[in-house]
Amino acid sequence: MCYLHFDICGKKGAGKSSLLSRFVNNSFDELCCETNGIHMGVKKVSVDGRYINLYIWDSYLYSKVDSYPISNFKSVDGFVFVFDCTDERAIEDILEWQKKVEQEGQTHIPKLLLSNKCDMECDRVISRLSAVRLAEKYKMEFFEVSAKNSSQVELAFLTLTALLLS
């Protein structure tokens, strides 16, 4: 059995820990608080008849581009960039992450772009079209997800896994 290492990155409050909990444990905590330290989830999945252990890391360090450890670029298999579609400045954060990936010469690492909190349609300020264009520009797979109602969460992680196995 093989394993893959994903890092969930994005602005504080984007819902990184909630997405991790939803994918790994199929749970959502309305009172989820700020990540203080490191959370890691492990989930065994099957893709095309192959079993893979996914090791998914979420750290308070991953909420700020400048604090992301350079050494992680050498060990990560895939990035999961998360933004809150109800935060008008969230795209700026994703652009900073992409810039860091480019500076480190790691543009070959597969990336997901997840627009989280899509269940809050009335509060949305970042359009689907804007996010799709960003994903296309930087060759990322894009999904609108909701950790709260589990919309497309599993599909997104399995898509990244399949990309890495192909």
Automatic annotation (TrEMBL):
Gene3D superfamilies reported in the protein's UniProt record: P-loop containing nucleotide triphosphate hydrolases
One GO MF term: GTP binding
Entry annotated with the keyword GTP-binding: yes
Entry-linked Pfam families: Ras (PF00071)
Keywords: GTP-binding, Nucleotide-binding
PANTHER family xref list: RAS-RELATED PROTEIN RAB (PTHR47977)
Name of this chain's protein: Rab-type small G protein
Organism: Oopsacas minuta
